[in-house]
């Protein structure tokens, strides 16, 4: 099958939390299609590694060490990207943390709120700073939620609460920005292969006094395909949602879960 032209060449994007993992794969997918991309992360070493890995792509890459949960740092990141690229067309809110694996009664207020501060605060900070730029010529916002934003996940109250909040933010903003030709959608990945999933499985195994192998098998068997999804599966979906092929798709929360969630 021939490659599909997604008509993104020459556009510019910011991707938060893109030093590694899904964010880096999203940045790579954009760069490979000719999009200029600014990425941020709190981890300077991860940013340096991302720059070394991605710097030979078609689009221009800008790296920026910043904590998106800090409003001033998020705004500075957005403005730096807009100045460097002469505008801004796409925002991908990818930054997020897994939060603690504990029962609700064992959580502290600080543990609960710190997860929301990163997973929802970063989303708000980056998007609100970018809206004036996006409204100038139409744009796209893609928020990375989770299948856990649609269903329970035992001992993960802060995380699931925040990811449900991402979907609410997405739908509301889609209505607010529709008249400005700005589309806002969410992607809800399932269990994505990589170190973060490994840590979640290990944490859940410890909390439930079960073996890591048993918890991993349970996670995998939740899929009708008996598979985890890959970071590239998520990146490809983001790319499509940012293209003209989906200009009438907004306010949606699209699953990339290998069939685990179908609603």
TrEMBL record:
It is an enzyme of class 1 (oxidoreductase). Keywords: Oxidoreductase. PANTHER family: 3-OXOACYL-[ACYL-CARRIER-PROTEIN] REDUCTASE (PTHR42760:SF133), SHORT-CHAIN DEHYDROGENASES/REDUCTASES FAMILY MEMBER (PTHR42760). Its EC number is 1.1.1.-. One of its GO terms (molecular function) is oxidoreductase activity. The keyword Electron transport does not apply. This is SDR family NAD(P)-dependent oxidoreductase. Belongs to the short-chain dehydrogenases/reductases (SDR) family. It comes from Haloplanus ruber.
